[in-house]
Every structure is written in C-alpha cells, then in structure tokens.
Design brief:
Shape: elongated
Number of strands: 0
Number of domains: 2
Structural class: mainly alpha
Protein name: Tetratricopeptide repeat-containing protein
Helix content: over 70%
Order of helices and strands: HHHHHHHHH
Organism: Lentzea pudingi
InterPro entries: NLR-like, TPR-like_helical_dom_sf
Largest sheet: none
CATH architecture of the largest domain: Alpha Horseshoe
CATH class of the largest domain: Mainly Alpha
Length: 198
C-alpha cells in the first residue's frame, strides 16, 4: 500500500466547494470556463495548503488536463511536470498518484512529438506493472499510450507487442465491450494494417 508521508491538512470547505465546481465544469466539457477557475484554485491551494500538499498537486495536475483539452500543450506539460516532480517527494516514485501524473505528463509530450516521452512511459509502465498489476486500468492505459507512440515513432514491433498485451489484459479485466478495450482493439488494428509500411 502507498501513503503520503505526512497527514494531509484538511481542505477548507470553501476551497473544497470550488474544486467540486471546477470538476463539474471539466466533466461537462466546459474547458474554457474551467481554465480560469483552476488557475485561481492552484494559486489558492498553494497559499492555503502549501505547494506540496496532495490536494495542491492534484489541482496542478487537473489544470494541466484543462490545458491539454484546450490544446495548450506546452502549458499542459509544464503543469503535469510540476505535479509529477513534486509528487516524487510528497508521495514517492511508486505511488499511484505520482504514476498518474507521470502518465498525464507523457501524454502532453506524446502529442508534441517529444521522444523523451518514451523513457518516461516505460518507467511509469514498469512501476505500474509491479505495484498495480497488468490488469489495472492505469497500467493498461499506459501500455496503450506507449504502444501508440512507439508506432508513431517507427517501432511497429514494439507497438504490436504492447498493444496485444494491453488488449489481452483489458479483455480479462473489463470485457470486450468496455470502451478502453474497444479503443485498444482499434489502435491495434491500425498498427496491424499499417505495419508492412514501416
């Protein structure tokens, strides 16, 4: 099991209310409205809770996700990187939240075509395999992300191996009709149909 090394300071009620409201905006796809809300939340979390508080890190990461949806990729990567790097100290390298922040950071890097996403994803996947198991949704998602990016960068065999493993794990964990399973199957089909060109 993984725990923060110190007890979390309780989140003030008003701050918690604003976080809930910002999450609702994100879930509704209202990213333009969510951006200023979360920008202010990050500043207030840092001031009221401290820069290394777990809830501060979660909201830094969430702001990165807002930027990602708005296609502000450099800002997205910067926020996810800030959350990930601080989480290494706050939570530890193998904590599920640290690994989630690492994956989110890598996703922004993938869309920007940054090859340094590959070692980050490989390290994240290796840690998730050990700590969460291959049937965990987070592990399967990282394997899918890495597989897709390997194919984009010309490693068709590496992509096939990872996507086939991810699909088998998703089938066992969630079944054929699950959206994640269907997405992996679609990505694997693309790789198989185009591998001869690589």
């Amino acid at each position: 099991m993984w725990f923060s090394r110190r007890k979390e300071t309780p989140v003030p009620a008003e701050l918690a209310r604003r976080i809930k409201s910002a999450l609702a905006l994100f879930d509704a796809g209202q990213y333009q409205h969510a951006e200023p809300e979360w920008t202010a939340l990050v500043l207030d979390c840092r001031e009221q809770l401290g820069p290394d508080h777990p809830e501060t890190l979660r909201n830094v990461d969430r702001l990165g996700s807002v930027y990602f949806r708005l296609k502000k990729l450099m800002q997205s990567e910067a926020m996810h990187r800030a959350a990930h790097e601080q989480a290494l100290t706050t939570f530890g390298a193998d904590h599920p939240e640290t690994l989630s922040f690492a994956h989110n950071r890598a996703c922004a890097m993938v869309v920007m075509g940054d090859r340094s996403a590959i070692p980050l994803l490989e390290d994240t996947l290796a840690r998730q395999r050990r700590k969460l198991g291959m049937r965990h949704e987070a592990t399967i998602t990282t394997a899918k992300t890495l597989g897709v990016f390997l194919f984009m960068k010309g490693d068709a065999q590496g992509a096939l191996d990872l996507l086939e493993e991810a699909l088998a794990a998703a089938m066992r964990a969630f079944g054929r009709d699950d959206p994640l399973t269907a997405d992996i199957a679609h990505q694997l089909d693309i790789v198989r149909r185009n591998s001869y060109r690589r």
